[in-house]
Structure formats: structure tokens, C-alpha cells
Write a structure and sequence with these properties.
By secondary structure, the chain is α/β, with parallel strands linked by helices. The chain is built from ten helices and seven strands. Helix content is 47%, strand content 12%.
Length: 263
């Protein structure tokens, strides 16, 4: 779909909930066809002047830009941005080598493209104006299968019981999201799963003779225990003891460190 958008001289607009790989999909596509992709995180403080400078650089360099959480920009600014993108896309479709952009004559490299990602339905997000929607081809992104991704990554790290461990990892985060308190810094999405998988791979490399269940239990605790509040720690330990019965309730590797107070 994104390559089809490029063929039509349009931009790509993956949208979906957080953690579905919208930005990563765009970056991987750019990597696959050897294009430079600049990722920019948008905020409501952006104005059309800043975006104009960004677009001038894109048109001149021929690179791709991925504007993350694009619908956080104010509606008034989005309408002006739509005209800026339309000017660039028309020049590209006409095959121009040099074009006028906001009073400046610029060299145009036709490989440039603009991608946007959106999290619909979040607080502080605005609906895109129709003249901007017409310039992008939307792509609906779904929540990935965490268990399948975890299983494949664990197999690639040398785990023999990858399927069972992947299911236990996903079940751990599902139960945590249901039973633990709601905090802004708690994350049970794809980023958290990947963090545990990386820790599990490192543990397997360092200590391949240890039981795989113990390695996975240690990885889950090392990654998650430091960010949980004190009242949630017993609940978290209870979830782990249910999912990993008969395993020692391992302390994290850093439990012997002195307690540091952040000032």
C-alpha cells in the first residue's frame, strides 16, 4: 500500500493504536529500498514556518520524512501544511527540476516523500482536514501477535522451549495490565516485550546451561521490577509464581546495590 502511494506521488499515512509498528514499518520500507528516512516527533508547538523549512530540506535532498503523531499539530497549522505538501507533490508530478516554494526557488529531487503516523482517538489529537487527507494514502495498522513475535525471537536466541516461554511472557503482561495499578510510566506493549526478549537473549548467551524457565523469569524481573511501585511488587511476584510454579522467586541482579536517592 505504501509503495502504491509512492507510485501515485502521494504520501503514506499509517494509523492505529500505539505499539503497532507504524513508524517502524515506514523506517523498514525506507531501509529496504535504500532511502534515508528522517523521523520527526510532532507536537502542538509546531508552526507552518518550521514545517516549511523541513519541507525545503526534503525537496532539496530527496529524502523521506516520517512525521510521528502528526495529528497533534493544531488544526490551523495543518491546513497550511496541506498547501505546502500539495505544492511539492504537484511539482513532483509535473517532473520539474526547479520549483517555487513559499517565494524560494528550490532544486527538486523526485525521490522525496512525506509519511505521517497517527494515533486516532487520543486526547489532544485533532482530526485531519479533508484537503490534507487527500494527499495521503491511509494504512490501517492492527495490534501484532506478541506471542508469535516472541516465539520467533526466542528461537533465534537459542531457546528450545520458545513457544511455552513466549505464551508465559504475553500472559505476564496481560495479567499485569489487569491487576496492577494504573501508572503513566507502566508499559505493557510491544516495546516492553522487546525489552524482555533482548534481556532473555543476553542471559542465554551468558548462561546457556541454566534452565530456560529460570532465564526467562530472571529477564522478566530484571526489566520490570525497577519500574513498579512498592504496592504492586507483591502482585507482580504473585503473577510470576503462578506462571512459573516451582521456580525460585529470583531477586534481580541488582538487588545488592545500595539504594540510591535521586535528587
Amino acid at each position: 500500500t505504501l509503495m502504491g502511494a509512492l507510485h501515485l506521488n502521494l504520501g503514506g499515512a499509517p494509523e492505529g493504536p500505539a505499539g503497532t509498528g507504524k513508524t517502524e514499518t515506514t523506517k523498514d520500507l525506507a531501509k529496504a529500498i535504500a532511502m534515508q528516512c528522517v523521523v520527526f516527533n510532532c507536537s502542538d508547538g509546531l508552526d507552518y514556518l518550521a514545517m516549511g523549512k523541513f519541507f525545503k530540506g526534503l525537496a532539496s535532498s530527496g529524502a523521506w520524512a516520517c512525521f510521528d503523531e502528526f495529528n497533534r499539530i493544531d488544526l490551523e497549522v495543518l491546513s497550511v501544511i496541506a498547501q505546502q505538501i500539495l505544492t511539492m507533490q504537484r511539482a513532483k508530478a509535473a517532473g520539474l527540476k526547479i520549483f517555487d516554494f513559499e517565494g524560494t526557488r528550490l532544486a527538486l529531487r523526485p525521490t522525496f516523500s512525506v509519511f505521517i503516523t497517527m494515533n486516532p482517538g487520543y486526547a489532544g489529537r485533532s482530526e485531519l482536514p479533508d484537503n490534507l487527507k487527500a494527499l495521503f494514502r491511509s494504512v490501517a495498522m492492527m495490534v501484532p501477535d506478541y506471542a508469535l513475535i516472541s516465539e520467533i525471537m526466542l528461537y533465534s536466541s537459542g531457546y528450545l522451549k520458545a513457544r511455552d516461554l513466549a505464551r508465559k511472557l504475553v500472559a505476564t503482561y496481560r495479567l499485569c495490565s489487569e491487576q496492577l495499578s494504573s501508572q503513566s510510566h507502566y508499559d505493557y506493549g510491544m516495546r516492553a516485550v522487546i525489552s524482555v526478549l533482548r534481556a532473555a537473549a543476553a542471559n542465554k548467551q551468558k548462561d546457556s546451561a541454566t534452565d530456560e524457565q529460570v532465564l526467562m523469569l530472571r529477564s522478566i524481573k530484571d526489566v520490570n521490577a525497577p519500574k513498579f511501585l512498592a504496592p504492586d511488587i507483591p502482585l507482580f511476584n504473585g503473577i510470576l509464581s503462578d506462571l512459573f510454579p516451582g521456580r525460585p522467586n529470583l531477586a534481580t541482579h541488582h538487588s545488592s546495590w545500595p539504594l540510591a536517592t535521586c535528587i
